[in-house]
Amino acid sequence: MTILLPNLTYCYGGKDTRNRTDTGNDDYVNQTKIIQYNNKFSILGKWQRTAQSESNGGAKIYSTQIKNGEILLFEKNNKVKDEQGNLGTYTLDREKLKITLNKKEEYYLVYDDKKDVTKIYFNPVTPKYQIICDEGCAYTYTKR
């Protein structure tokens, strides 16, 4: 099953535009600084992983639905819990997300869905927020 994911021009393709500096271009600001500029979106709440998207290196993106995916509960004061009740922390700076949970650190570039505020896309990156999957990969989380 293939699902079209909005805003994937920032997660997929040959040119990485995610590490650009802010040039003052309103379109760039509106599309990449989701956490600070989109009044409708909030990372607070319960999010469940519902899909995984990837590419085989070609232009086609494949998406696989996930049943009973990981659940993360983002709370105020930078606290996060998983479905087992393990407590951790998170930091979110614009689109850069760091989650520390169970003595493990995970890093993502985070993008919201402009048409559906109940969806968010996590793109795994290195601790320096460099792309891991140059052919494209992302996790879709849905707010519960």
Q: Can you put this structure into words, describing what you see?
A:
With 144 residues, the protein is mostly beta strands. The chain has one domain: Lipocalin, CATH 2.40.128.280. It has helices spanning 26-32, 34-37, and strands at 45-55, 61-65, 71-75, 79-82, 87-93, 96-101, 104-113, 116-125, 137-143. An eight-stranded antiparallel beta barrel has the order 1-3-4-5-6-7-8-9. Strand 3 (71-75) and strand 4 (79-82) form a beta hairpin. The longest helix has 7 residues, at 26-32. The two termini are 22 Å apart.
- CA-based gyration radius: 15 Å
So what's the overall shape? globular
The share of residues in helices is: under 10%
Round the mean pLDDT to the nearest integer and report it: 77
What's the tally of helices?
Answer: 2
Gap from first CA to last CA:
22 Å
The unreliable regions are: 1-38
Strand order of the largest sheet: 1-3-4-5-6-7-8-9
The string of secondary-structure elements, in order, is: HHEEEEEEEEE
CATH structural architecture: Beta Barrel
Described by its quaternary structure, the protein is: single chain
Question: What is the third-level CATH name, the topology?
Answer: Lipocalin
Proportion of residues in β-strands = over 45%
